[in-house]
C-alpha cells in the first residue's frame, strides 16, 4: 500500500499565512501533519492562525524572518521544544520585484536573492542536523518556472529560483545518505497576491494583456490555483516519494512543455 499519509509528522512551511504556503500547509494538515508556519509580522501570523482555525486546523505560528540566521536558529529550537522534531520543511517564503534589470539597484537585487535563495539555505541548514538525528526528513523548495525560463523584469527572481533549483539538487546529493529527500515544486502561474498585478482587469474591463498571454501559453488554458499544488506537495512530503530526490516537480498546467497557441 503506497503511503501518502503525514500522520504524526511535524511540517514547517515558511511564509504560510496565506497564498501557496497556506494551501500546502492545509493539505498537509488534511494528510495528518501538525502545522508550523512563520511570517515576518505578528499581525500576519495572527491572521494566518485565524485562517487555519477557520479551516479547522490548529496551527502553530511564529514570527521569523527566514533571512536572519539568529532568528531562524531560535525559531527552530523553539518549534522543536514546543511542537516536536521537524520532519518536513517547505521553503515557501519568497518575494518578487518586477523591475527592468538595468533599472534595478544592487540592493533590490540582493533583497530578492536574500529571501528567495539565502532564506531556504538558512532554513535547510538549521533543520538538517536534527533530521539526521531523527533518521531522515523531507525538504521541499518552492521553485518556479523561472527556475528554467527568464522573462523581462524578473532577473533577480529568476536568478534566485534558478539557484534554488541547484541548491535543491545539492542538498539531495549531500544528505541523501541520511534518508533526507530534498525536492523542488515548481508552480506555474498561480492566482495569488504575488501575481495579482498580472491579472488586474483593464479600465475597459478587459483582461490584462499578461493574463491573456498566460492563458494562450498554458495548455490547461487557465491560471493555476494554490490548491492545484496540494496533491504534488503531499506526495513530495510523504513516504510515497522516499526514492525521489533532487527532482523539481513542475505543477504548471503544461506551460513549460508548450510553445503556445497561435494568436
Ligand atoms: P505571496 O502571496 O507573496 O506570499 C509570500 C509569503 O512569504 C508571504 O506570507 C510573505 O509574508 C512571506 N515572506 C516574504 N518574505 C519573508 C521573509 N523574509 N521571511 C518569512 N516570510 C516571508 O506569494 P505566493 O504566490 O503564495 O508564493 C509563495 C512561493 O511560491 C514564493 O516562493 C513564490 O516565489 C513561489 N511561486 C509563486 C508562483 C505564483 O504564480 N504565485 C509561482 C511559482 C512560484 P509577508 O506577507 O509578511 O510579506
Ligand atoms: C512573473 C510571475 C512568475 C510567477 C512564477 C511562475 O512575474 O513572471 O510572478 O514569476 O510568480 O514564479 O512560475
How would you explain this protein's 3D organization?
With 263 residues, the protein is α/β, with parallel strands linked by helices. 41% of the residues lie in helices and 14% in strands. The longest helix is centred in the middle third of the chain and has 28 residues, at 106-133. The chain binds NADP nicotinamide-adenine-dinucleotide phosphate and D-gluconic acid.
Furnish the topology, listing elements before pairings:
Layout: E1 10-14, H1 19-30, E2 34-39, H2 42-54, E3 60-63, H3 69-82, E4 88-91, H4 106-133, E5 137-142, H5 155-175, E6 180-187, H6 196-199, H7 209-217, H8 230-237, E7 248-251
Parallel strand pairs: 1-2, 1-4, 2-3, 4-5, 5-6, 6-7
The site of NADP nicotinamide-adenine-dinucleotide phosphate has 30 residues, from α1, β2 and α4.
List keywords for this structure.
263 residues, alpha/beta, seven-stranded parallel beta sheet, 8 helices, binds NADP nicotinamide-adenine-dinucleotide phosphate, binds D-gluconic acid
Largest sheet: 7 strands, parallel
Looking across the biggest beta sheet, what order are the strands in? Answer: 3-2-1-4-5-6-7
SSE class: alpha/beta
Can you give the mean pLDDT? 97
Topology as a string of helices (H) and strands (E): EHEHEHEHEHEHHHE
Bound molecules: NADP nicotinamide-adenine-dinucleotide phosphate, D-gluconic acid
- Global morphology: globular
Distance between the termini: 47 Å
Q: What share of the residues lie within helices? A: 40-55%
| Unreliable segments of 5+ consecutive residues | none
- The count of β-strands is 7
Q: Round the Cα radius of gyration to an integer and report it.
A: 18 Å
Alpha plus pi helix count: 8
Measured by DSSP, the beta-strand proportion falls in 5-15%
